[in-house]
Amino acid sequence: xxxxxxxxxxxxxxxxxxxxxxxxxxxxxxxxxxxxxxxxxxxxxxxxxxxxxxxxxxxxxxxxxxxxxxxxxxxxxxxxxxxxxxxxxxxxxxxxxxxxxxxxxxxxxxxxxxxxxxxxxxxxxxxxxxxxxxxxxxxxxxxxxxxxxxxxxxxxxxxxxxxxxxxxxxxxxxxxxxxxxxxxxxxxxxxxxxxxxxxxxxxxxxxxxxxxxxxxxx
Length: 218
Description:
Elements: H1 2-29, E1 35-41, E2 44-53, E3 56-59, H2 61-71, H3 87-103, H4 108-137, E4 156-160, E5 163-169, H5 171-184, H6 186-198, H7 206-214
Antiparallel strand pairs: 1-2, 1-5, 2-3, 4-5
Helix pairs in contact: 1-3, 1-5, 3-4, 3-5, 4-5
């Protein structure tokens, strides 16, 4: 009975420690980039970069918008994505989900909280993909350079004319995935590693074995 209570306290302590680490990752995600992209072309050997975060789109925004003008694409404007204003409430929701997942790990509410933690970064990437689809399919046909509608990828390479764009999730997304992993899988993983370590075989030399035999311990 005492051993069971000690194990329960140990598991609770482990969940709390991992939950605190997850909360730190969620807070870090608040101001980190959500999505990043790098454009390369022969005329831009150093490349052009874009970074999307809760505060808007930054980077070589003027150069990219000038290129967008020539091919009939919209300029990147923060006002085109009003959902960016929801990032702070989303982070608060993620912190609440971490707390529920730690406090109620086997309850339905705790399980739903874990699902919500995974859904937040996935939903953020899906939202960026939707906005990229809008940009790629909103081209104007009277632009100086005629461009067929296309879908830029939120992750991976997209080639348009002589430009290649590599897009990838920002650090905020990785932090949120990390937080979801810590409260969902890390507790069980840590317990399995600890149990295997405690029950690992111990190898001794012949002299040590003989000493143990004489002491009556084997």
